[in-house]
Specification:
Blueprint: H1 3-21, H2 30-33, H3 36-40, E1 45-46, E2 50-56, E3 61-63, E4 67-68, E5 75-78, E6 84-87, E7 90-91, E8 98-101, E9 109-112, E10 121-127, E11 133-147, E12 156-159, E13 164-167, E14 170-173, E15 177-183, E16 193-195, E17 201-204, E18 213-220, E19 227-242, E20 247-250, E21 256-265, E22 269-274, E23 277-278, E24 285-293, E25 296-303, E26 312-320, E27 323-333, H4 347-365, E28 387-390, E29 401-404, H5 405-424
Parallel strand pairs: 2-11, 12-19, 20-27
Antiparallel strand pairs: 1-4, 3-9, 5-6, 5-10, 6-7, 8-9, 10-11, 11-14, 13-17, 15-16, 15-18, 18-19, 19-21, 21-25, 22-23, 22-26, 24-25, 26-27, 28-29
Amino acid sequence: MDLSWNVQALICCLQTYFMLLAPVESNSNYFEDYDYNQVLGLQPTFDVPVVNISMVATQTAVLPCSVENLGTYEVVWTDKSHQTLTYNDRRVVDDSRISIERPYKKEWNLVIRSVQHSDQGIYRCSVNTDPVKSKEIYLKIKVPPKIIESQSSNDVIVKEGDTVQLVCNATGVPLPTITWYRVPSKDSGAEKERIGLNGEMIIIHNISRYCDDHYECIASNGVSTDVGRKMKVTVHFPPEIRLPNRRIGQSLKLQTMLECEITANPHYRSYWLRKGQEVITTDKYQVDMYDAGDRTKTLTLTITGLEPEDYGDYKCVSQNSLGYDEKVMELYEYTDTLPKYQIKPDDKTDDKKDKENKITEKAKATPRTMIDEKQGPPYIKVPIGESKRVHSGDDDGSSGSAVTASHCLLLLPIGVALIISRATR
């Protein structure tokens, strides 16, 4: 039989006994305040001696404390520094986040609202017995990752060839892991690319114009969602000019366009020079600049009604605070100097017939294979079905002719007949 049920039954019997003996005018709280546990010799006990609780910062933590057979003893909560927080169901510290909740009579739960990392530590629920009995609860606070903006890098502008350090300082419990990514522009359509190793800093040595982009650090520690921070790295470099065509021709009185491609960052000033003078937009000249993307611009010069004095060299010039570049383009007069002739429709057919006639005449003039009676026929032992080349010239085979096995079989009877004819003479 359950011992606790027996104890409760005994307490009920005692309450009934003292009620019968007590005078009617006695205090009605007499039976409620009477310590039956002390009469029976029962001591307070805790349900679980040690409890670990893990919470996320800003949440509400409930530290449970259930006491059996408390009787007239008192319950006190103390924090990690042994400071008294509550006495029975009353708060004794100046912290409105702390309170006692008692959903049941034997429970003395400590509630801490909006917990912070500083609240982490060991809390004790104690009963003033002799010796004092305590229950320890370890409160662990997890803190989501947070990037400290004041201690992290902002957008930076550097010169090509410099060394760049990007810093991402983050806090959290547990300590966050920092991962770096390179984030291309949306127009490129490329996905962000992970770069380097995990850490609060990345270093780019001898940075080039191709490293000009957005960079992002992501802090994660498994608590709540990850956080990130983007920083723009702008690389400045001197202009570079490229000419799609170094020479261009056009006829008199017509219109032409000269163009050059300029890559620079920043773009400061770009223009055309003609005989040392800057070409400006007039009725005859039109100067335009177009954005070609990727820090490149196209500078064009349109000339209408070409005259002899318009031919010559034109110089494309670009400059910024870091440097200067120029390229020379030649405009020359274009004239149609190709010979003009007309091909008759029958010319091609006549040429083909003449070629066929020449081949026929050559075949007729070529004598058939002649056999030298003195030397005899070319006799070659070649298996049937194979072929071998017979050389009538030098050893390099430059004047040889191919003879197949079937040809050798045709020549063999003629050779035998000649040999027999010689023997009978």
